Fold these 2 entries.
Entry 1:
Amino acid sequence: MSHKQIICLGLESSCDDTAAAIVRRNADGSADILSNIIHTQTDVHAPFGGVVPELAARAHIEYMDQMVAEALKTAQLTYNDLNLVAATSGPGLLGGVIVGLMSGKAISLAHDLPFIAVNHLEGHALTAGLSHGIEPPYLLLLISGGHTQILQVNKVGQYELLGTTIDDAIGEAFDKTAKLLGLGYPGGPFVEQYAKQGNPKRFNLPRPMKGRKNCDFSFSGLKTAVLLAAKNIQPITQQDKYDLCAAFQAAATDVLADRLKRAMLLFRENLNVTIDSPQKLIIAGGVAANQAIAKKLTALGQQHNFELIVPPANLCTDNGAMIAWAGITQYLNGNTNNLTAPPRARWPLYE
Ligand code: KG4
Ligand code: ZN
């Protein structure tokens, strides 16, 4: 491991957050987040109940410069203090990715700094190193509006996909349930609040993929089941909404736990370690904020000797700090200049 201090500017614009952050990797390997600035486009997309790519790209253009200026100001640094620039170059909505990627390349060229094109998923995958100093191997559950994946992180740059959704992402299912019931956007936090006052057993919703041998997910059937259950009880009362949210959340949580249980067994098999060897499970992505999910997965972890680690909420959702940290990590691994890297709508981590 190198003993260099590195100060990196990280940019993120792959979905609906325009973010810039400055992270310092100290000579002893520890990290400090000197600034972590974000503009979330909730108000732009709320009327549509989901992210509108064209509107997202326009908002990124409008806000990226401000985010960078604020990140430098908060860190009390100038461009001259930076050693590295990193930006998300995929996967994500192409219009937005282009904004952050080209901004990063321009700053790198203007100030003669090395540039790293970061895979957004790698940003999430390595966040536990930034927040908790944790190094691979570990199991990663990534649950957000765009992704539902279980990854085995063997070491930096070596990721194995254990399971993924075959249709909708889990966050999307939360958002669609909220939209159906007219609760607001983004829907996850509303569904969680409503579920607290509901009876999860009133509606008998399916648990798609439960018991399957692989670790994959499916959420579109669950979404349709909620729709049908709601249709059958029109006009819908406030208590109906509470009960539907509780039933949906219970089903989604159940599925997560079942798929993750399989992944824990597979992870041990792959690493050739028994249940006596303590392991780590990291949860990242916006849905990781859900307390009912965290509670269930903590209990599951205890049964299987996996310690559950959830980075702080502002590092779980999309942010610039995780991109800066992934950039620093890549740089120390010998990746020095990606000025020709293209924006990529699709970019699996495990190819
Ligand atoms: O990671 P994120 O901020 O953005 C990306 O999708 O990349 O995740 C946003 C997703 C949304 O679908 C939102 O509804 C969901 O995370 N979410 C939640 C909660 N808070 C946010 N889902 C369930 N429970 C929550 N408390
Ligand atoms: Zn993300």
Note: The domain at 6-133+315-332 is CATH 3.30.420.40 (Nucleotidyltransferase; domain 5).
Entry 2:
Amino acid sequence: MRIIETKDYNDMSKKAANILSAQVIMKPDCVLGLATGSTPIGTYEKLVEWYEKGDLDFSQVTSVNLDEYKGLDRKNDQSYYYFMHEHLFNHVNIKEENTNVPDGTQPDGEKECARYEELIRSLGGVDLQLLGLGHNGHIGFNEPADAFDKTTHCVDLTESTIEANKRFFASADEVPRQAYTMGIGTIMQAKKILIIVSGEDKADIVRDAFFGSVTPRVPASILQMHSDVTLVADEAALSKIPR
Ligand code: F6R
């Protein structure tokens, strides 16, 4: 694992956007795996800025998002479909038909997850997967469990994730209880992985995930087994790693 330490959130965002840009420049028709949450917002801002300057072209890029709440439709401003349009897709020249987010309105989870997994396979897999890190070590919505979930599946959100995400909703009661997410196996098949982390509140989980044992109790720890992972994190998030 490559670790890139940055001064702060802004610097993290710039370095992460640089890595994504390099991918798009080196392979204009690449498949980008994308994430939502608060961490990648600054990264997407940089990509939009560089696109506006004429430095980036998304016209041949395909995207696949990690996850989506079950039960939220695309117009819901808390859906990940909405988030991606608001923060990236509406501001760059990616083609709408080349953007993919699991369809949270599909009630048949098994069918939707199988469709999504097949879609990723038919695209030839993900070239570069962007990830954020949950406080409990989750990646996507792969929560701590007894075993690593392999493919795209429907999950019950844990209390800690509902608690963490309630800030985006009127109350905790409104946070959906389920989501569709790429599995750990899906994520691990990405050719390259870029995980971004910021803030002192993530320092413990950064240490446990990347310097502790590999266990499904800390889902991100599996990334230690991937051959091409870059962790871009600020000083605060790296403040507890062994030096
Ligand atoms: C988002 C996702 C989640 C977040 C994680 C960190 O698509 O899959 O795993 O990356 O919850 O969220 P933030 O960045 O809000 O701390």
Note: The beta strands are 2-6, 31-34, 62-65, 67-69, 99-100, 128-131, 153-156, 178-181, 192-197, 229-234.
